[in-house]
Amino acid sequence: MITLKGINKTYYTEATSLHVLKGIDLQINQGEYVSIMGASGSGKSTLLNILGILDNYDTGEYYLDNKLIKNLSEKQAAYYRNEMIGFVFQSFNLINFKNALENVALPLYYRNISRKKRNMIAMEYLDRMGLKDWAAHMPNEMSGGQKQRVAIARAIISQPKILLADEPTGALDSVTTIEVMKVMKELNQNGLTTIIVTHERSVAEETKKIIHIKDGLIENIENRL
Ligand code: ADP
Ligand code: MG
Question: Ligand 1 pocket: which residues have CB below 6 Å?
């Protein structure tokens, strides 16, 4: 599903450069449940953003579903992102002036699906997240865990092949963290390849493979079964 070969990424600012990824080799197969751990600033988000085609890399190769993701035009990148990838962020990134149902339905708007059909499908996804009764509520009326489940519903409504989550429980307390990780586990059990960046050991331990990154390289991979 995902193959990375010798991925390098350097950030250049006015005076300095920062070599963040120094040759990442990685293989993630369809249906895997993986977490990425590492110290703050070790390049976890950079790596996840490259996987999510939100950012470019300098050298190396990234194959997604056997397609080389490299030097894509903005339009091609958007196409693969929309077809293949669901993204979940620490800060939920919901639209504050839209209710839960509208937030979940949004990706379908860009696929020219009628409002009636969008809302019907969005309601199914909210229901899967246990949030049917919250459809008409605004984000600021919901708990962190509920907001993240709305964000997950939005991320999977276009039926991506891969779900990428950058510190999805980073803003949650321990009870809602468990709630969100339960949803993640169910999605993976239904076949969704899932990759979670976290610095919480307890979250990583929910996954089946923990990738440790340090100083721009994969330090080791823990298989857990
Ligand atoms: P992590 O998610 O593991 O905390 P990041 O991938 O966000 O780490 O960042 C790795 C390093 O790259 C950090 O030192 C960060 O400050 C730097 N960095 C991240 N994004 C940029 C950027 N757009 N421009 C310059 N430096 C960046
Ligand atoms: Mg980060």
Answer: 11, 13, 18, 20, 38, 40-46
For 167, phi then psi, to 5°, come to 50, 55
| In a domain? residue 88 | yes
- pLDDT above 80: residue 176: yes
pLDDT at 41 exceeding the cut of 80 = yes
Q: Whose Cα sits closest to atom 15 in ligand 1? A: 41
Burial class, 45, CB count within 10 angstroms (exposed 0-12 / middle 13-18 / buried 19+): buried
Q: Which pLDDT score, from 0 to 100, does residue 225 have?
A: 77
CATH code, domain carrying 176 = 3.40.50.300
pLDDT at position 111: 86
Give the ligand at the shortest distance from the Cα of 41: 1
pTM of the model: 0.96
